[in-house]
Amino acid sequence: MARQFRDIEDVIERLGRLGYVADRALATAIYLLLNLGKPLLIEGPAGVGKTEAAKALAAMLETELIRLQCYEGLDLNSAVYEWNYQKQLLAIKIQEGSDKTVEEKENYVFGSNFLLKRPLLQSILSEERAPVLLVDEIDRADEAFEAFLLELLAEFQITIPELGTIQAKRVPHVILTSNSSRELSDALKRRCLYHWIDYPDLAKELEIVRVRLPEIDGDLSSEVVRFVHTIRDLNLSKPPGVSETIDLSRSLILLEKTKLDQEAAEETLGCILKSADDLTKVRSEGLSRLLSRSGGS
Amino acid sequence: MSRPRTKSIVEFCRFARANGVSAGTKETIDCLQVAEAIADADRDTFRFALRAILTSSADEWVLFDDLFTAFWANPDPTSESLSKNPARRRLAPPSLRHESGSRMVTAFGNGSEPEGEGEQKRFSGASAVERLRKVDFSQMPQTDLAELERIALRLLRRMSYRVARRLRARKRRGSIDLRRTIRRSICRGGEFLDLCYKGPKKERAKVVILLDVSDSMNPYSFFLLKLAYVLGKYSREVKSFIFSTILVEVSNLLRTPRMSDALRTLAQMTAGWSGGTRIGESLRDFNAHHAAALLSRHTVVIVLSDGWDTGAPEELAAELKKIRRRVAKVIWLNPLLGLEEYRPVTRGISAALPFIDVFAPAHNLQSLLALEEHLRPGR
After folding, report:
1. Domain B109-159+204-375 -> CATH class
2. Under an 8 A CB cutoff, do A142 and B297 touch?
3. Which pLDDT does position B296 carry in this prediction?
4. A83/B48 CB distance under 8 A
5. How many other CB atoms sit within 10 Å of the CB of residue A30?
6. Measured between alpha carbons, how far is A197 from B124 in angstroms, rounded to an integer?
7. Averaged over A235-248, what is the pLDDT?
8. Is the entire prediction scored with pTM above 0.80?
9. Inter-chain contact B48–A35, Cβ cutoff 8 Å?
């Protein structure tokens, strides 16, 4: 990959062209990911563009994005591979009358036609280009899975008893994201590069909104971003992320609002506040007060 | 790359490591490699690159910038000049900060003296068990330990199993495990006579006990140690530590077949400890050496302490927060909570409260029994 991206400026510029506003620190981390071949662990609050970073990277490299969403109880059958048992059973029945030898039958039934490839297996099977493997919200999976992942990230090979060991032809670029709801194992963290994405400052968030929604009115976008920043300072249980800012802007465009006044804010509050407690809290602060506070700053 | 630059990067990695950034030699090598690749980059880019490589958590991420500034601001960063630097915060080894106390721990000595015997002898029959449960440990005769053992066992059974979401092969009920069913059918000529099922797997919860044996805990530590002994005897998943100013793992010791032997060894071991409490430092020690191996999302950490801490309350809070982030539950058992006039206002405890899930008394058997509620399987 080093040949493609000579320097960090190049990474920033290319991501920018794809609509992803990366600061220098993140671009450096991505540059290192490509050059050192290490996985990149991105942590940060919800909705600040952790997943988007992986999507943008895939788009930038013009390669496939393979995503594994983690959840509690994620097991190897849904992360790596599974045989399509029903199809195998049918195949066995169909072959019953044929004069194939037992070995031929077995090879057929355990052929790749019957293998359901889950994200991790897919990621090492790519022939052409190294894909981007996004392991999303790794903190939700359990330690056993983390340990398996660690092994995969070290060797990039997967063993299927019936087929043998499959070695990655193209080593995927791995991005892991975590909402840091729990501490990840030290071993996993040690293996990864680390990047912390926080809520962007006013200028950067404004830039993000304008890049993502080029049609937005200049004044409206700065009103929206200021308003969201004011709300973020309220110490809510679920502070709105950048994706919420974009949702709000998009809703306002859709509703053909040109100004974020009290009425418009009231109608679209659901875009940025996602819990009843937070709604009550913001209402008790007074929308008009919040709006004037954000306007005045 | 020039020799001095290589040297200073290596120095910096060591400096960062000494100040709490958990990076190894591999990371140092990566740094050197990268520094070469981006040799003509500006200072910020250089900082971002080293930060991405060396840090691995939000805390380290914040710490890193200070370290970077502190280190590179110094024109000749040798370790001597750095030790005078105010940014070198955590470099002093903990042992240097201990002023060795002369008081002896008598915590385990209690066992041999049947204290308060006269008062308790009158109890008999069913009501005696009831009354016994309410007797403060500090006044309890040591012959009434059978009840304690019974309660400990009951607690253990409670917390032994949690139901995991992951499915595993199982004989009955649940969904059909096709993989195994097909395997099993081979010996029947491909006919599915035996069906295999899978259902939720049961996992044992791990328990870590941190027991305060300082002077102020004296009346209670003997009994709580017995609790730890009983829990440890029946489950390998229980790890016990004792601390006052230093932290010592006693899991194996508590597995000695005879309790009296175990306690005698402990008493010898702790003789000469100072009687003060440094909970924060002890927890830091725990985090540094044992946390990675012992703590997981299925772990319940039980701290048995009265919270009288002579160390800094901020340290206690910070270390407890680290523990809390890794585990299922932090239970703090405080014998003083049994006293009616007690309010958790000691600085240590009030700093720690936000990171405690269950703050409960542990001064008598009844209070231990009440714990059952908090040790239910699940998260």
Report:
1. alpha beta
2. yes
3. 80
4. no
5. 29
6. 65
7. 88
8. no
9. no
* DSSP at B138: G
Can you give the residue ranges of every domain in chain B? 3-91, 109-159+204-375, 164-202
Task: Count contacts between A and B (CB, < 8 Å).
Answer: 92
The pLDDT score that the predictor gives to residue B378 is 47
Compute the nearest-CA separation of A278 from chain B (Å).
21
Lowest mean pLDDT among A160-164, B164-168, B295-299, B354-358: B164-168
Residue B232 near residue B241 (C-beta atoms within 8 A): no
Q: Which pLDDT tens digit goes with each residue over A69-92?
A: 998 888 888 899 988 888 888 888
User: Which of A3-12, A160-169, A269-278 is predicted with the least confidence, judged by mean pLDDT?
Assistant: A3-12
Q: Which residue has the tokens 């890049």?
A: A211
Mean predicted lDDT score pLDDT of chain B: 71
- B98 touches A at CB < 8 Å: no
E strands along B49-192, which residues?
161-170, 175-176
Q: CA A6, A8, A10, A15: dihedral to nearest 10 degrees? A: 130
Pairing mode of beta strands A157-160, B358-361: unpaired
Q: Which residues contact B223 (CB under 8 A, 6 or more apart)?
A: B137, B140, B148
Contacts of B48 in chain A (CB under 8 A): 24-25, 28-29
The reply to whether residue A143 touches residue B296, judged by beta carbons under 8 angstroms, is yes
Q: Which residue has the tokens 């239910």?
A: B376
Residues of chain B in contact with residue A8, where contact means CB-CB under 8 angstroms, are 38, 41, 45
Is the CB of A196 less than 8 angstroms away from the CB of B297?
no
Q: Which residue has the tokens 């700065």?
A: A222
